[in-house]
Amino acid sequence: MRRSRDKAPSLTASGVNVAFGGFKALTDVTMTITPGAVHGLIGPNGAGKTTLVNTLTGFQTPTTGQVGLAGRDVGALAPHELRRAGVARTFQAGRLFTGLDVLDNLAVTGVGLGHSRSASEAEAMKLLGWMGIAHLAEQPAAGLPYTDERRVGIARALMFSPEFLLLDEPAAGMSEAEASDLADLIRLVADELGTGILLIEHNVGLVLSVSHHVYVLDAGQIIEEGDVDVILASQAVRDAYLGADQEAA
Ligand SMILES: Nc1ncnc2c1ncn2[C@@H]1O[C@H](COP(=O)(O)OP(=O)(O)OP(=O)(O)O)[C@@H](O)[C@H]1O
């Protein structure tokens, strides 16, 4: 399953602004997602995390600024075009095709990417096996337990090895033990597949435990970035994020 990391370019946001009418959801956001590494994105409710994921995956066009892939400005590409270019995502809600079984959920994605049905099924089985969930292949997607649904959502996003994977609150509603299993999977995807990951999570402990580099977003702006030690030592982060968390507690 391993892929050479050297071939994979970075996914970048450069001076990205997104405005909804007069409201600025993102202001001058710059970030780099590199292959084979886990990047965390944290911030209080409404900070703009999902808007940023949407912008990096073609669901939202930046008002100004660039989204770059291999040095090419891809900010105007549609989601399916970015997916074909190697940028995959999951959604807060699983968004599986509930009328299909797990194998077909993955295979349909492969066909959508331009692969044959048989090649897509083979890729799906290989991926499910690699993730240790091959036993789910013939299960209807509709009846899956929550954590399995999340895993299948990640498996579907990983079809045909995207260079980048953006995970939008994958641990929402999970117990600490389930979140810990998810952390193992995220590490494995980065380490073994060489995928560049952006992890958006309210579970700060999970983000800090798996991320090589963390970005902190507050009111649409990156207020801090760095490794875990930098984030833990940051007064700005305490004020903006952990402070808000403590007030809510
Ligand atoms: N399509 C839209 N039109 C208008 N405002 C929007 C739109 N999408 C998001 N917003 C606003 O932009 C801000 C950022 O929202 P976003 O969902 O990106 O934040 P978030 O950090 O992901 O929040 P949460 O942690 O609660 O999921 C919020 O104030 C939100 O209400």
Automatic annotation (TrEMBL):
SUPFAM superfamilies: P-loop containing nucleoside triphosphate hydrolases (SSF52540). Keywords: ATP-binding, Nucleotide-binding, Transport. CDD domains: ABC_Mj1267_LivG_branched (cd03219). Coiled coil: none annotated. InterPro entries: AAA+_ATPase, ABC_AA/LPS_Transport, ABC_transporter-like_ATP-bd, P-loop_NTPase. SMART domains: AAA (SM00382). One of its GO terms (molecular function) is ATP binding. The keyword Acyltransferase does not apply. This is ABC transporter ATP-binding protein. It comes from Aliiroseovarius salicola.
